[in-house]
Amino acid sequence: MTSLATTRDVPVLVVSSAASAERRINPSWTISQLKGKLESVTGIPPSAQVLSLRLPDRQQATSISAEDEDSTKLELWFLPPYAEIHVETTDPASSTVLPPSSAVPKYEMPVETYSSLPDTVLAYKRSHQIGRFDPHAPESKERKVAEMWREIDAAAIAVGKRCVLSPSTTRRGTVAYVGLVPGIPGIGPWVGIRLDEPAGKNDGSVAGQRYFECDLQYGVFVRPNRVEVGDWKELGLEEDDNDLDEI
């Protein structure tokens, strides 16, 4: 029999409402093959499984699905070690296949023992200096934030100035806010723009906190590198050197 494993296996974390376990999968598997193997872990039949991939450095999940799951291979997705594969169900009744996790006796490994094991998520993060094990993480973030503020000063971005949002030359507006926006993921300052036209995403507020006044869809927050200040007139109001013969 031909083995399914044609490339190196990748350790991942399988997460569902009834289980959480570390497993090894192979990028050469098809989605259908993966679902078949996940049934024994989650208790969810392959036909009812909804898969999504979550990477350590990204908050948004990526769906693992295709029209032809029997031939679509996992190698189409970026699968770093210890990424999380979340398994949800389209059939609530399938969640009763396994008993509630609270009813299952659990072995709790001492922290000292887990920390000493060589082949764990903790060991991987420690050896690759990821997250809290990165000695330069705080300094790197501080440098990035400082660079953003220098970029704001160099570009003369300030409240009240006219601007255009690159790469477009038609999304024009006025700088209405420069500073931190805790409601948006990410570090460093943001630039709030009051647009001339309803081509934005908000009304100058984020997560219930107002930063400037404007109508709905006339406000947007962007990073400094997308803002170019200057004598940007509203579209349709540019000076025309030609005399108008008709209107």
Strand order across the largest sheet: 2-1-5-3-4
Helix count from the secondary structure assignment: 4
Helix-strand string: EEHEEEHHHEEEEEEE
Name the overall outline: elongated
Query: C-alpha Rg, in Å?
Result: 26 Å
Q: How would you sum up the major sheet?
A: 5 strands, mixed
Give the structural class: alpha+beta
Q: How many individual β-strands?
A: 12
Give the strand content: 15-25%
Low-confidence stretches: 1-6, 239-247
Helix content: 10-25%
Taking all residues together, what is the mean pLDDT?
85
Q: Termini distance?
A: 80 Å
Task: Name a few traits of the molecule.
247 residues; alpha+beta; 5-stranded mixed β-sheet; 5-stranded antiparallel β-sheet; 12 strands; 23% strand; disordered N terminus
